[in-house]
Amino acid sequence: MSRPVISLRKLLAEHTAAAAPELVRPERDEALRCLACGHRCRVLKGRHGVCHVRFNRDGELRVPSGYVSSLGMDPIEKKPFYHAYPGMNALSFGMFGCSFHCPFCQNWVTSQTLRDEKALAEPQFVTAERIVELALEHGCPVLSSTYNEPLITSEWAVEIFKLGKPHGMVGSYVSNGNATPEVLEYLRPYVDLYNADLKAFQDKTYRRLGGIRENVLNSIRLLKKLDFWVEIVTLIVPGLNDSDDELKGIADFIAGVSPDIPWHVTAFHPDYKVNDKSRTPPDTLLGAYQIGKDAGLSFVYAGNLPGMVGNCEDTSCPSCGEVLIERCGFTVRRNHMNGSNCPSCNTTIPGVWEVGESQSD
Ligand code: SF4
């Protein structure tokens, strides 16, 4: 039987470390300003932040360390990254908690732990060294902080990525994008691949999910400026963000940052508190795909409905139209790329295609 939230909270509080100095600022009366996510909580002594996992113990900000909620080897396409190391695996780990509380969350058991009594999961205690060893044993070139919101547990991810770097491993984040300039600067030496959600384009929708739209938009702009390899995901939830206006707003924004950013429009399935809506139909994804292309995006992908969206899972050359990578779901069926280039017209395709390569644009 799962342990109650109160004893899980006590257990996790024993497995913490001091926050990175870059991610905390002391304030009056022993309060601490946390800089790890866009909420910038002022955490009073004895209290925790909105995420429930970072807390002020006697004037020191304590942050999660030394455990995972889950650990697995995933195809990198599952993150999803479609322009980074195609067909390879990412050693993926998560902790608990999130800065948002989306009612349709598809990872809610780990993301809403400590906030929702029903979201009970057990930690597995593990060292950063062991995680890197596992990646080496299984030949994973990528380490990925995912399954919960990685920004709120950034110190743990950096501890792991630092150990992986001498082995040539690449760090990656799968995040809601609710970042701060401070946390992105802190991560940049260790994280090369960043997958950010852009869940909606209306601020009022973001506020229902527990965020502020502008924080996410600013983070995406900064991710690009700091030269992370960025891919964006929009989970299309019927009735929430599937209108043409909403999708056009998202697509135009991404194209304004860079038309080379891949945009993944993915299908929702009923989960967590949203069980009264039907799955996102293929036609909605195909409509979103077309909106993305009309906005000038070079790479748009329809996800979560394998084999049901024509060639919208494939990568094609934006110059000559040659099909470069054929996919079905998380499987790469054929990769025709010539290194970083189109084999037909030799156009360089933006992304990070081979181990040891730097980003091509
Ligand atoms: S990570 Fe975000 S939600 Fe958690 S304490 Fe820091 S600012 Fe608050």
What tags apply to this protein structure?
361 residues, TIM Barrel, eight-stranded mixed sheet, globular
Write the SSE topology.
Blueprint: H1 5-13, E1 16-18, E2 24-26, E3 32-34, E4 42-43, E5 55-57, E6 60-64, E7 67-68, E8 70-75, E9 89-94, H2 108-111, E10 124-125, H3 128-137, E11 142-145, H4 154-164, E12 170-175, H5 181-187, E13 191-197, H6 203-209, H7 213-225, E14 229-236, H8 244-257, E15 263-267, H9 282-294, E16 300-303, E17 315-316, E18 323-328, E19 331-335
Parallel strand pairs: 9-11, 11-12, 12-13, 13-14, 14-15, 15-16
Antiparallel strand pairs: 1-6, 2-3, 3-4, 5-6, 7-10, 8-9, 17-18, 18-19
Helix pairs in contact: 3-4, 8-9
The structure holds iron/sulfur cluster (SF4).
Iron/sulfur cluster (SF4) is lined by residues 34, 36-37, 39-41, 43, 49-51, 54, 99, 152.
Describe the structure.
- By secondary structure, the chain is an alpha/beta fold.
- It has helices spanning 5-13, 108-111, 128-137, 154-164, 181-187, 203-209, 213-225, 244-257, 282-294, and strands at 16-18, 24-26, 32-34, 42-43, 55-57, 60-64, 67-68, 70-75, 89-94, 124-125, 142-145, 170-175, 191-197, 229-236, 263-267, 300-303, 315-316, 323-328, 331-335.
- The strands form 5 sheets. Strands 8-9-11-12-13-14-15-16 form an 8-stranded mixed sheet, with helices on one face. Strands 1-6-5 form a 3-stranded antiparallel sheet, with no helix packed on it.
- A hairpin with a 2-residue loop joins strand 5 and strand 6 (60-64).
- Helix 3 crosses helix 4 (154-164) and helix 8 (244-257) crosses helix 9.
- The longest helix has 14 residues, at 244-257.
- The model has no long low-confidence stretch (mean pLDDT 95).
